[in-house]
Specification:
By secondary structure, this protein is an alpha+beta fold. The chain contains 18 helices and 23 strands. Strands 1, 2, 5, 6, 7, 8, 9, 10 and 11 form a 9-stranded antiparallel β-sheet that branches. A 5-stranded antiparallel β-sheet has the order 13-12-16-15-14, with helices on both faces.
């Protein structure tokens, strides 16, 4: 109220205060702002120039290992084709000196190939294992020639190249993998059922996935054998249109990650991402990376700042088509460079606050000088205003405290002697205080009555809103027909169960259930009878499973069940019990003229030590369900892991 009065009209107090404020404001605002702006802009230009040089050099340095891997593969490819075209020397005696057939009909390198022996060149060959599947055409001369030539070149290049890389290997579409990996007997304990063609580092090179037959990189993954994060380079070698093989390098990334996290400019941090949004390395997202086994998308993180960085950088990458650049964000500079090979982008986040510190120091110095001038003028001003303004204002302060404490009687009863007898601004203000106190005293009584009325109305409305909220939450998570969790609710709760199982290390089974010939039921007996079948099946499944199990309707005639802490054998028993009970159900037609029955097909998938992802369990159970449908329906099938990617594509929902 005092400030309103001071702004009301020109007075002696306002004239003095405005003169003082004008002088100090000009000195502080103009001089300090110009000083800060000049220094800050100078630092921005020099910093951007330095960042460009730094990020370009950093990108070149981090790309070395990936370029070296691609160069190695071209050398290997050229050597292989040259020896092949020159009719590489081959004979059966030499072949069976290093390879041997095992009782399970698979072919492996002999034990000496890993332990070490003197080859025909007088050099020691060691650290190599190989796996050739039982169905490989081992009797074919060209196939054995290809095996022996691949083994010879892996032996030739492996020693030198594994100084920089974890290993060197050659895979073949005939279910073959020959590996030079010091310290790791990769193929010695391989099962005869192993299908290397189903691995990402093989099928990404197929003509379907890589029609240009160029070198390709796998995604980031954690290898439990090497106990390190790695990425693999695969290069196909097209001997003939029907005769191919693939060269492979595994590149260990722990050293790269250590440089990303620890080798950075003071006050900054680094991270790496892929253009499709996968996060490769980030010092604040290590736990999330480990939990998702490297399959972490930026969109999955509830990190608005990181998502903003990604969207900004991706737009710049698509627009500029440059290998390195600087983007100015709101509070940071984003220095970005491309890591050649896997196509990753290395980012240094440089906070602008690092530039403001020197500027602030200069501005602070100017501010201190200005404050000293202000203090001197305030002292002079105080001597003038003390009698004219300050002493009357002290009386008003006491009056304001009385109003704050709701002691209006002190003002209206003249307990506090306000100078209302004066004819200047102070006297007018005193009269207003007294008038305001009387009005507030009356208003207080009116507000107390109104407050009680509003509180009652708020309580009633709050109860109504809570009921509406509870109803809406239930409708959003429960399928209206079967009264079980809908697809969205089932997904969220299933993800939580899988995370708990992952932390506890327990086995989880996933059931996919589909009512057989449900469309025929709707077409023959009508949709009301179809709804009756859906509800009955839901109730039957609900009564058959355990309290800890999770049931949900995914849509149409499709249901799913998560069985926590359940082995595959236990899941098969539960699934068979569900199938039998639903087969026993009987339904009436709408006119009750006849009865009909229905059956259900069930697919089962089970988690392992490394598979707790909802999407994988869903996909494997769906593959098993597809197999149950194809095998005649009304049966339970468990996912065995033997389907090829082509088969998986056919059965994908």
């Amino acid at each position: 109220m005092i400030m309103r009065f001071l702004n009301y009209k020109q007075s002696l107090t306002m004239e003095v205060m405005l003169q003082m404020a004008l002088r100090v404001s000009i000195v502080i605002i103009v001089v300090s702002a110009l000083t800060y702006w000049h220094i800050y802009k100078t630092l921005v230009h020099s910093t951007i120039d330095g960042l460009k040089h730094y990020i370009h050099e950093r990108g070149q340095r981090e790309s070395v290992i990936f370029r070296l891997a691609e160069s190695n593969h071209q050398i290997f490819r050229a050597s292989f084709l040259a020896h092949w075209q020159q009719d590489f020397f081959y004979n059966d005696r030499f072949f069976w000196q290093v390879f041997e057939k095992r009782p399970d009909h698979t072919i492996h390198l002999q034990k000496k190939a890993y332990d070490g022996f003197f080859n025909s060149s007088g050099l020691i060959s060691k650290d190599i294992t190989a796996y050739v599947g039982a169905n490989a055409p081992a009797d074919d001369h060209d196939f054995r020639k290809k095996l022996l030539l691949a083994y010879t070149l892996v032996d030739h290049f492996g020693v030198a190249w594994t100084q920089q890389f974890a290993n060197l290997y050659v895979s073949m579409p005939e279910n073959v993998n020959i590996v030079y990996w010091p310290g790791v007997r990769w193929a010695d304990n391989a099962s005869s059922k192993l299908n290397v063609v189903s691995e990402e580092w093989v099928y990404i090179t197929t003509p379907k996935n890589n029609p240009e037959l160029k070198s390709v990189w796998t995604g980031l993954y954690y290898d439990p054998t090497a106990l390190e994060w790695m990425v693999s380079l695969e290069t196909p070698v097209d001997i003939t249109p029907t005769n191919t093989l693939n060269i492979g390098h595994d590149i260990l990334l722990n050293a790269l990650f250590d440089r990303v996290f620890n080798d950075h400019l003071s006050g900054t941090y680094n991270f790496i991402f892929r253009e499709d949004g996968r996060l490769i390395a980030h010092p604040a997202k290590i736990k999330e990376m480990n939990r998702t086994h490297g399959m972490l998308m930026i969109s999955q993180l509830k990190d608005a700042q990181l998502s903003h960085y990604f969207q900004t950088l991706r737009a710049t990458i698509q627009k500029k088509q440059a290998d390195y650049f600087i983007v100015e964000a709101e509070d940071e500079f984003l220095a970005t460079t491309k890591i050649e090979g896997p196509g990753w982008w290395f980012v240094t986040v440089y906070p602008k606050s690092l530039l403001s510190s020197p500027s602030l120091k200069a501005a602070k110095f100017i501010l201190i000088i200005s404050l000293l001038a202000l203090i001197i003028e305030l002292i002079m001003l105080y001597m003038v205003m003390k009698k004219k303004v300050i002493e009357p204002l002290e009386t008003f302060i006491d009056a304001s405290s009385a109003i704050e404490a709701q002691r209006y009687d002190k003002i209206t009863g003249n307990v506090l002697p306000l100078p209302d007898q004066l004819d200047n601004e102070i006297g007018k203000l005193a009269k207003l205080f007294k008038s305001m106190s009387s009005s507030l005293q009356q208003f207080r009584g009116d507000m107390q009555h109104l407050t009680h009325t509003l509180e009652d109305q708020v309580k009633i409305r709050t109860r109504e809103l809570q009921k509406a909220k509870d109803k809406a939450e239930k409708e959003a998570t429960i399928d209206s027909l079967t009264q079980i969790p809908n697809r969205h609710s089932f997904y969220n709760r299933a993800k939580a169960l899988l995370q708990q199982a992952d932390h506890a290390g327990s086995t989880v089974c996933f059931l996919m259930l589909d009512i057989d010939f449900f469309k025929i039921i709707n077409d023959s007996y009508g949709h009301p009878q179809g709804d009756q079948v859906l509800v009955a099946c839901a109730r039957t499944i609900e009564k058959t499973i355990r309290d800890k199990d999770l049931l949900g309707r995914l849509g149409g005639e499709e249901f799913a069940v998560v069985l926590p802490d359940t082995s595959l054998e236990e899941a098969q028993v539960i699934a068979e019990r569900i199938r039998a009970r639903i087969a026993d159900l009987s339904f009436h037609t709408a006119q009750h003229t006849q009865r009909f029955h229905t059956t259900i097909s069930i697919g089962i998938s089970s988690s392992s030590e490394t598979i707790y992802a909802y999407e994988l369990l869903y996909k494997h159970a769906d593959l098993a369900l597809y197999e149950a449908k194809q095998s005649g329906r009304n049966r339970v099938v468990s996912y065995s892991g033997n389907w090829t990617p082509a088969q998986e594509d056919i059965s994908a929902p």
